[in-house]
Amino acid sequence: MPPTSPKSESPSDIRLDIRSGRMTNVTSGLAEGYVQANLVILPKSLSFDFLLFCQRNPKPCPILEVIEPGLIDPHLTCSGADIRYDVPLYNIYRNGKLSETCQSIEHVWSDDLVSFLIGCSFSFENALKQAHIPLRHQEMKCNVPMYKTSIPTVTAGIFSGPLVVSMRPVKRSHISKAIQVTSRFPDTHGAPIHVGSPISIGIADLTNPDYGDPVTILDDEEPVFWACGVTPQAAAIVSKPELMITHAPGHMLITDKTDNDFSIF
Amino acid sequence: MPPTSPKSESPSDIRLDIRSGRMTNVTSGLAEGYVQANLVILPKSLSFDFLLFCQRNPKPCPILEVIEPGLIDPHLTCSGADIRYDVPLYNIYRNGKLSETCQSIEHVWSDDLVSFLIGCSFSFENALKQAHIPLRHQEMKCNVPMYKTSIPTVTAGIFSGPLVVSMRPVKRSHISKAIQVTSRFPDTHGAPIHVGSPISIGIADLTNPDYGDPVTILDDEEPVFWACGVTPQAAAIVSKPELMITHAPGHMLITDKTDNDFSIF
Q: Angle A227-A233-A234 (CA atoms, 0-180°, nearest 5)?
């Protein structure tokens, strides 16, 4: 089903802009109504552990597609895309350290690598806007703020680490609606995991996010926290896999699937 | 959260009855409100393929827990249970053939085996009954009828095969409610995959199920089909893994988790 208000540029057009290097920015607000994806690429030897990590932590890591060893085409969600070029910015972690940020991963690609596409909260933002819930980071033309929390993920094999959340300020009178709307999309993080009181989930200072940009919170709003697909990057730092390639936070793969394709009702 | 109308026997009591051999029957209607699980046990070498098969086929194969190689305790869903004894009846498939049906798998257990617990539609039956939707197979005191369909699953590694469904007759005026109620439980197969016309999903004769028992359908009812956790057993026959141990259809592992633990709203 096509989204209700598609922008003129299709996901494949935008991916081509990204592949050619013309577009290197965050992807929030692009191709509205289409599902965006977090990316994690790992050596095959770690693929069972990571798939199990995702299964045990479905709120931060809802799997949209797994691309088998050495394959570059996400044929279930965006056939014709190339996982090596079609994300605006990649992070490469080696032994738990961010070693490189780059626009292509051609130089590190090998037939041993398995790619995981993980749902992204950007893809329910269109549904929030249709419900007349404004998005502060889009109003401020910046990246959504993301924070490491004191909530641990469930360990699987070598993978563990803190839950990372994204935060959107929501008017108190809109909180029920925001929860209802996002509950329809469990594959893109679903309902919030926490409303209000950042300190009680270990976030000391909302003005200082671990990833992305800070946003203004108004007097009639509460900060609302959704599980975030950057969680595997926090796990990379704790778990120290020899190699983990990811998107840079906010710089997502835009798929051909619509939000409606993944809504559960 | 405890279920609203717990029966007197707890899941752990029933598991002990099963372990001792006192209880070898189907588990539908037992420990109402508690989640029951389908079981699949495979050699470690096939565990990534099978976990990916489940991820790609979440309606028939929603994973509740994966128990790592050689471990016997499902510590996330029913700590203290023993995967080798606590299912009333097991099926053992070798190279695609059902080679043995037995009350324990002690004789084939090894440290190389990984166990997968998969959600079961029995666990939303309590919610259907609370919504005043009667369950014909429970009224008839038999096993729910299950059918292989003409709908293919999505292949992963060696695993492929037909989607298996369970069928419950539902009064036409109750169909909306039945869909709404079961939509709340995606981890136990969620909403139906098909309503009415069995032939259009490849089921020629409802009176002759592939697994379980036939049930009566009344004039004011339609057959309603839910994806079924017996799907991996159909995949075993097609995919011929050297060894796959499962529960016998209808003979489930009863966990300590309640339906409410897995409801999404």
A: 75
In chain A, the residue whose alpha carbon lies closest to the alpha carbon of B186 is A264
Residues 151-210 of A with CB under 8 A from B: 154, 157, 183, 186, 190-191
Half-sphere exposure of residue B249: CA atoms within 13 angstroms, side-chain side: 23
pLDDT tens per residue across span B129-178: 999 999 999 999 999 999 999 999 999 999 999 999 999 999 999 999 99
Is B47 touching A (CB cutoff 8 A)? Answer: yes
Residue B245 belongs to domain spanning: 11-121+239-260
The label of the residue with tokens 């993301």 reads: A146
Q: Is residue A4 part of a domain?
A: no
How far is it, in rounded angstroms, from Cα B50 to Cα B157?
A: 8
| Residue A95 shares a structural domain with residue A223 | no
| Dist. CA A158–CA A96, nearest whole Å | 12
For residues B162 and B150, is the Cβ–Cβ distance under 8 A? Answer: yes
Q: How far is B38 from chain A (nearest CA, A)?
A: 17
Residues of chain B scoring pLDDT < 70: 1-8
What ipTM did this prediction achieve? 0.81
Q: Are residues A69 and A167 in the same domain?
A: no
CB contact under 8 A, A55 and B66: yes
In a domain, B2, yes or no: no
**Nearest CA distance, A70 vs chain B (angstrom):** 14
Of A55, A66, A265, nearest to B63 by CB-CB distance is: A55
What would the DSSP string read from start to end of B237-260?
Answer: HHH--S-EEEEPTT-PEEEEEEHH
Residue A101 and residue A157 in one domain? no
Distance CA B88, CA B122 (A): 15
